[in-house]
């Protein structure tokens, strides 16, 4: 196994290097490896195109604030691909490509970025995106403990950013999971920044993966721009959790190429040279180089694939834009199974306000 040395003093696991060359064994991709490689590639393209589309809609006043996933597609796809449908996924806002892989329909996701809510299919076992930083890690542990107590062979995955590791919720989630050996996998997408706060301000630990052993949780550092490495590490962690052998913490080293959200201007706080250096490690270009070199994809097929992905996203956007908006008080339907008297009063206020 060849790996690359990183500043943290730990070594990030890598299978496909920046040039798109295999530096470690290909993971077990199931009965049809070539199809799976192309599926992973397409899913990353879908994530990127989705991101571009919502940002364009936001600029036109047709979508809400949105956080770009450009540069982080390998982590989002690689973490979702080894999951079974019944495994739970609890993510932040940066992992739309994971939700797409889990089967959430594109129009449902796009409708969400119009500021409205459409139910996720319950069988997808995916929680809606979480904006409140770090809380989804607790939800993942709760889902994992429920599975454990019920004897279901189900794993729950919590995904957060580097900034979220400084939240109490993150640390409480890991502590509880370690003590009770929850069948959970925690993924920290270390994309270098928490809005304008750099990774080094989050922890003096040389790597975020090193936070795990303090909770008695085995941890892995992986190249987050290498979809195959993320897939392999995730697969092992999920299998381990499913076998009853407890949680794992995975730090994926990646980078947010775009702005934090459509409400941010990263030129105010970060060096353009840093962005350029990371562009050279692009996760999609890396797998594309490998597929082209192996003869699994031609330039022509690649162009067709990208055009088909764009068409799919555009059609889904048209569908989502044609849907009627939620009623102004609809969000009460999603907050509690039974509204308390105070919430009922608030709902009446909201209805009255909307009519004025
Ligand atoms: C509890 C809480 N505090 C603050 C915020 C405001 N906020 C939104 S995103 C963000 C930074 C998160 O950084 P990170 O965890 O690294 O995730 P990334 O955006 O880089 O994917 C903050 C502080 C919030 N949403 N929730
Ligand atoms: Mg971050």
Write up what this structure looks like.
The chain is an alpha/beta fold. It has two domains: 4-325, 3-Layer(aba) Sandwich (Rossmann fold); 331-356, no CATH class. It has helices at 33-59, 73-80, 96-102, 106-112, 135-150, 168-180, 227-242, 272-279, 283-293, 299-322, 341-355, and strands at residues 4-5, 11-12, 88-90, 156-161, 184-190, 193-194, 197-198, 219-223, 248-253. Helix 1 crosses helix 3. The longest helix is centred in the first third of the chain and has 27 residues, at 33-59. The radius of gyration is 20 Å and the shape is globular. It starts with a strand and ends with a helix.
What keyword list fits this structure?
356 residues, 2 domains, globular, two-stranded antiparallel ribbon, Rossmann fold, five-stranded parallel beta sheet, binds magnesium ion, alpha/beta, binds thiamine diphosphate, disordered N terminus
């Amino acid at each position: 196994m060849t790996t690359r040395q990183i500043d943290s003093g730990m070594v990030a696991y890598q299978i496909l290097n920046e040039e798109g060359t295999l530096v470690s064994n290909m993971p077990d991709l199931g009965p049809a490896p070539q199809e799976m490689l192309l599926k992973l590639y397409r899913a990353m393209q879908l994530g990127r195109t989705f991101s571009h589309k919502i940002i364009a809609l936001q600029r036109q006043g047709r979508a809400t604030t949105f956080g770009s996933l450009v540069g982080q597609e390998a982590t989002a796809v690689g973490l979702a691909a080894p999951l079974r449908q019944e495994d739970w996924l609890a993510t932040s806002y940066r992992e739309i490509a994971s939700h797409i892989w889990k089967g959430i329909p594109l129009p449902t996701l796009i409708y969400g970025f119009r500021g409205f809510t459409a139910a996720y299919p319950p069988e997808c076992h995916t929680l809606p995106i979480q904006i409140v930083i770090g809380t989804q890690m607790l939800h993942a542990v709760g889902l994992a403990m429920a599975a454990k107590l019920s004897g279901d062979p189900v794993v729950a995955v919590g995904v957060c950013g580097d900034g979220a590791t400084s939240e109490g919720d993150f640390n409480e989630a890991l502590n509880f999971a370690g003590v009770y050996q929850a069948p959970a996998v925690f993924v920290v997408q270390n994309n270098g920044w928490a809005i304008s706060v750099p990774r080094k301000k989050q922890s003096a630990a040389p790597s975020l993966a090193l936070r795990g052993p303090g909770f008695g949780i085995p941890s892995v550092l992986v190249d987050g721009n290498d979809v195959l490495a993320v897939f392999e590490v995730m697969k092992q962690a999920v299998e381990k959790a499913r076998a009853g052998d407890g949680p794992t913490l995975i730090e994926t080293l990646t980078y947010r190429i775009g702005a934090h959200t459509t409400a941010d201007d990263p030129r105010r706080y970060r060096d353009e040279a840093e962005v350029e250096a990371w562009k050279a490690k692009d996760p999609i270009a890396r797998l594309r180089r490998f597929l082209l070199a192996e003869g699994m994809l031609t330039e022509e097929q690649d162009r067709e694939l990208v055009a088909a992905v764009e068409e799919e996203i555009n059609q889904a956007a048209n569908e989502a834009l044609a849907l009627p908006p939620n009623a102004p008080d609809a969000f009460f339907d999603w907050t509690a199974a039974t509204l308390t008297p105070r919430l009922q009063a608030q709902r009446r206020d909201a209805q009255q306000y909307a009519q004025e």
